[in-house]
Amino acid sequence: MTEMDPSKKVADRYLKREVLGEGTYGVVYKAIDTKTGQTVAIKKIRLGKQKEGVNFTALREIKLLKELKDPNIIELIDAFPHKGNLHLVFEFMETDLEAVIRDRNIFLSPADIKSYIQMTLKGLAFCHKKWVLHRDMKPNNLLIGPNGQLKLADFGLARVFGSPDRKFTHQVFARWYRAPELLFGTKQYGAGVDVWAAACIFAELLLRRPFLQGTSDIDQLGKIFAAFGTPTSSQWPDMVYLPDYVEYQFVPAPPLRSLFPMASDDTLDLLSKMFTYDPKARISVQQALEHRYFSSAPLPTDPAKLPRPTPKSRVSDINPQDGPTVLSPPRKSRRVMPDRERFEGNSNLAEKINECDGEVRQAVGDVAGKKEHVPTSVDFSIFGSKPLSRPTINRLWVYWVNLFPHVMIFFYFLRECHLACV
Ligand code: ADP
């Protein structure tokens, strides 16, 4: 009698139910674990052309994810290969923060917002304590369980699998949540990138719409500078050394209160510390959790009492006609790449990760890919009114001067070809 395939044995343990949705890496099913009776979500990851299966690094990292256990992190219960796909079994969650933010029937009080952002930061603090970056923080990766617990999901998957669509593999982080150092093409980044993304989520909870909705990486930087002013070198000394740094004309920072008119002073203080330009000066997640915002009134709402959409109401189920839309960028454009990062400003972390990796891959954005044009202005559209004058970039003429010899060579070459043909 032939021995049963061990992966089939594991697969048989889970009774597949309906499809929950299709994500970047493949289909997600609801399933029942027949051994425990628990409802789970199984993410079936297409291994595509990687016929040889998941590589050693990926397996090691999956093992690492399995060991990350915290009340604010989604539990990876199991991982097994089956029929050429990798199956990741997660605890089942009812909804996500994007659905909460978009649901116009939900009123979020300051105490509710405090609770959601506190759980987000607690999950992140745990990851950072374990020397792991999330790197794909966005509201639809913050899942919400039946008891109102918020849990970070899609943790480290980008690092393990990257984007299945090669066109997007140069992208790190969902653009709207991307820190300025990433947009300037830094290759060495640290926990600060998650703090910036968490600040964007915080702002989104307050505004009930994504805060900085850039349409390209350049536009994203324009939106950031319009909101917080163009960074000066005294504010962020290392900025000018970043690979894709381009000088933007200076625009002063408008008062933060003008962007968040209803927010308390404590809220604004914490936001400004999380949105600090220089990643070395940016507040850490742990420091953010210790900020007086969390200890002052109103205290965070008990998670069980948090307003949430009715179970099963996910973003994909919401009819866009139902109310004012808060649009996420197309899923794929918000995806990430598989890369190996060094942790910036945190040498221990850097060494720890690189010990495992042996290689440092670049976190290259559109800017680095030189796919976009040189920025010509800072975008003021977040203010809803047109600026009096659109500041232009100072160094545009340098590009034309550099281009001139190439144009001349091209015409010379054309002439030679023409003469050869005649
Ligand atoms: P993406 O890659 O775009 O972030 P995912 O692959 O994470 O999408 O998820 C696809 C769908 O499956 C989404 O609707 C998501 O809400 C749902 N989903 C993912 N993980 C879980 C889970 N643990 N419990 C319930 N639903 C989940």
Automatic annotation (TrEMBL):
<dbReference type="InterPro" id="IPR037770">
    <property type="entry name" value="CDK7"/>
</dbReference>
<dbReference type="GO" id="GO:0004693">
    <property type="term" value="F:cyclin-dependent protein serine/threonine kinase activity"/>
</dbReference>
<dbReference type="InterPro" id="IPR050108">
    <property type="entry name" value="CDK"/>
</dbReference>
<keyword id="KW-0812">Transmembrane</keyword>
<dbReference type="GO" id="GO:0008353">
    <property type="term" value="F:RNA polymerase II CTD heptapeptide repeat kinase activity"/>
</dbReference>
<comment type="similarity">
    <text>Belongs to the protein kinase superfamily. CMGC Ser/Thr protein kinase family. CDC2/CDKX subfamily.</text>
</comment>
<feature type="transmembrane region" description="Helical">
    <location>
        <begin position="396"/>
        <end position="414"/>
    </location>
</feature>
<dbReference type="InterPro" id="IPR017441">
    <property type="entry name" value="Protein_kinase_ATP_BS"/>
</dbReference>
<feature type="domain" description="Protein kinase">
    <location>
        <begin position="14"/>
        <end position="294"/>
    </location>
</feature>
<dbReference type="InterPro" id="IPR008271">
    <property type="entry name" value="Ser/Thr_kinase_AS"/>
</dbReference>
<dbReference type="Pfam" id="PF00069">
    <property type="entry name" value="Pkinase"/>
</dbReference>
<dbReference type="InterPro" id="IPR000719">
    <property type="entry name" value="Prot_kinase_dom"/>
</dbReference>
<keyword id="KW-1133">Transmembrane helix</keyword>
<feature type="region of interest" description="Disordered">
    <location>
        <begin position="299"/>
        <end position="336"/>
    </location>
</feature>
<keyword id="KW-0547">Nucleotide-binding</keyword>
<keyword id="KW-0067">ATP-binding</keyword>
<keyword id="KW-0472">Membrane</keyword>
<keyword id="KW-0808">Transferase</keyword>
<dbReference type="GO" id="GO:0045944">
    <property type="term" value="P:positive regulation of transcription by RNA polymerase II"/>
</dbReference>
<feature type="binding site">
    <location>
        <position position="43"/>
    </location>
    <ligand>
        <name>ATP</name>
    </ligand>
</feature>
<feature type="binding site">
    <location>
        <position position="44"/>
    </location>
    <ligand>
        <name>ATP</name>
    </ligand>
</feature>
<dbReference type="GO" id="GO:0005524">
    <property type="term" value="F:ATP binding"/>
</dbReference>
<keyword id="KW-0723">Serine/threonine-protein kinase</keyword>
<feature type="active site" description="Proton acceptor">
    <location>
        <position position="136"/>
    </location>
</feature>
<dbReference type="GO" id="GO:0005737">
    <property type="term" value="C:cytoplasm"/>
</dbReference>
<keyword id="KW-0418">Kinase</keyword>
<protein>
    <submittedName>
        <fullName>Cyclin-dependent kinase D-2-like isoform X1</fullName>
    </submittedName>
</protein>
<keyword id="KW-0597">Phosphoprotein</keyword>
<dbReference type="GO" id="GO:0070985">
    <property type="term" value="C:transcription factor TFIIK complex"/>
</dbReference>
<dbReference type="InterPro" id="IPR011009">
    <property type="entry name" value="Kinase-like_dom_sf"/>
</dbReference>
<feature type="binding site">
    <location>
        <begin position="20"/>
        <end position="28"/>
    </location>
    <ligand>
        <name>ATP</name>
    </ligand>
</feature>
